[in-house]
Amino acid sequence: KNEVEQSPQNLTAQEGEFITINCSYSVGISALHWLQQHPGGGIVSLFMLSSGKKKHGRLIATINIQEKHSSLHITASHPRDSAVYICAVLDYGGSQGNLIFGKGTKLSVKP
Amino acid sequence: DTGVSQDPRHKITKRGQNVTFRCDPISEHNRLYWYRQTLGQGPEFLTYFQNEAQLEKSRLLSDRFSAERPKGSFSTLEIQRTEQGDSAMYLCASRQDTEAFFGQGTRLTVV
């Protein structure tokens, strides 16, 4: 079982729809990052969370430490939001230098 | 400090040639990570450094791959005798406590 699981793996939406991407993890963490990667591009950090909720423009990220779950929401989605969204956790354990990535969610927003 | 920088951004090489990539982390970040990402996949852990010490290596890092961080600042990743299967995006990240920053990656194409 992967330590960081994202769902869905792929998501297609119509412009304007509200989008939710989920991330569940099985390790104790000190922080969680939501990252965005456009096709052929590098990784951009959207949020870093250790508790609660953060909002930036149309993006909202929440985390529930007890349930080991985080969500990334996009309101009023737009084709330029099409990208891969990756969840990465900084854990207290000993593997991979304590920075573990999910496999990503590929989002495609159609006009 | 402008973030994690990687050089070059793109590299095309012939099969069998050696290539070297460089990563300059955020100043004073003690942890530095290398990841490989193939099309449609999330980043796969290769190795990480705490200061100049290489503390963990993935089994993905065959004997053709070597990474160094000689002074605990920048790092290099070398691939010897490149193969077509090495074609991928190579990502670098640096971290201090709960802050992790990601480079734009080096896209390697082996022809």
Find the biggest chain interface: A-B, 26 and 27 residues
Order of helices and strands of chain A: EEEEEEEEEEE
User: DSSP strand (E) fraction of chain A?
Assistant: over 45%
Roughly what is the average pLDDT of chain B, rounded to an integer? 91
Structural class of chain A: mainly beta
User: Which bin fits the share of residues in helices of chain A?
Assistant: under 10%
Oligomer: heterodimer
Q: How far is it from the N-terminal to the C-terminal residue of chain B, by CA?
A: 35 Å
> What composes the largest sheet of chain A?
6 strands, mixed
**Rg of chain B (C-alpha, Å):** 13 Å
Low-confidence runs of at least 5 consecutive residues of chain B: none
Number of strands of chain B: 11
What attributes characterize this protein structure?
heterodimer, A: mainly beta, B: 111 residues, mainly beta, four-stranded antiparallel sheet, 0% helix
Please give a quick description of this structure:
By secondary structure, chain A is an all-beta fold.
